[in-house]
Write a structure and sequence with these properties.
18% strand, 2 domains, Rossmann fold, 6-stranded parallel sheet, globular, 12 helices, alpha/beta
Length: 329
């Protein structure tokens, strides 16, 4: 028995999932899976520095290794860039792992995997998002591409380490402790995530106005967060015509997670914050206009509903029906 516990406590795993926001959120359940089978496992994570706060939301993650691949590739002629790269590689190579698992399946993530000390594992050439990534791993595994990203991540890690998936996905998020937002009204509120990185994923502003007015008629406040100047301007436009709505100050990811987790509901387009809301177990409605939610939508559960598909945007009535189904009002 002592030897068994020693083996469990010695298990060390490095996860490589660098971006984007939604993809990082989709990787959190693998931490819960590992801990479920190996309670004393030491789990570290390589992630883009702009998303470094996300793995920290799971108490099972020990050390975060931030990278800045997006920034570095645009500044390769600068000496300070190479100093940062050297410091990252030095810190990463100082650790020895039993398993180094790349759940991203891209060439850039595969190269990061090879920088670490340990058995490198990843998707095979038919399963990886970029097939060339598979040549960088010492062990590769076949995982069907016709399933949600959460399950693909879980199955890869389970095969790599050698355990069976016997439970449903658990995101394991602990929301940051933020005492209060002085700008947040004390009333019941929903968060409207109207912004996303691609304009073809947006929902018409007229729809947001109609939705917001209906929520206001039911004594529910609307919160309109933003991340860029253009998004702030849209939030302000919507707030002018949605009674009693609030445009908050700029929020970091910890603050956003807390706001989303406390909401009566979150309605969002195809954006990472909507995935964060669903992972935080807030009642969440996803609005899809040009993407298929089957593979990368909000992970299905009692508190999440995906609406729309490629070339088909849901109307306001469909969103209201979803909110009523989740007993938001």
């Amino acid at each position: 028995m002592a030897q068994s516990l020693a083996n469990i406590s010695a298990l060390s795993v490095l996860l490589v999932k660098t971006s984007s926001l939604g993809d990082v959120i989709h990787n959190l359940p693998v931490v819960s899976d590992i801990i479920h089978h190996y309670p004393y496992a030491q789990i570290d994570w390589v992630v883009e520095d702009s998303f470094a706060s996300l793995p920290k939301l799971h108490p099972g993650v020990r050390t975060i290794f931030p990278v800045a691949m997006r920034r570095w590739r645009n500044k390769l002629l600068r000496l300070d860039t190479w100093r940062e790269i050297f410091a990252f590689r030095t810190a990463l190579s100082a650790q020895q792992y039993d398993f180094v698992i790349d759940t991203q399946g891209l060439l850039k993530s595969a190269l990061l995997t090879r920088s670490a000390q340990g058995l490198s594992c990843g998707f095979d050439s038919h399963s990886a998002r970029e097939s060339i990534a598979s040549i960088s791993y010492q062990r590769v595994f076949s995982v069907s591409t016709r399933q949600h990203a959460v399950e693909r991540n879980r199955q890869l890690v389970a095969q790599a380490i050698g355990f069976k998936l016997e439970n449903s996905a658990e995101f394991g998020i602990n929301l940051p402790k933020i005492e209060s937002f002085d700008w947040l009204p004390p009333d019941k509120y929903v968060v409207l995530l109207h912004a996303t990185s691609r304009t073809d994923k947006l929902w018409d502003e007229a729809n947001w106005v109609e939705l917001g007015n209906t929520l206001n008629e039911n004594n529910i406040r609307c919160i309109l967060p933003w991340g860029s100047i253009a998004e702030q301007e849209r939030s302000l436009r919507l707030a002018e015509v949605i009674p009693k709505s609030t445009v908050p100050p700029h929020l970091n990811l910890d603050q956003a997670a807390t706001l989303l987790g406390m909401a009566s509901a979150v309605i969002g387009v195809d954006t990472g914050l909507a995935h964060l809301a669903a992972a935080a177990n807030a009642p969440t409605v996803g609005i899809y206009t040009t993407t298929n939610p089957t593979l990368t939508g909000l992970y299905s559960g009692e508190n999440t509903i995906n609406l729309g598909n490629i070339g088909f945007a849901p109307d306001v009535d469909a969103v209201l029906t979803a909110l009523r189904k989740m007993k938001v009002f």
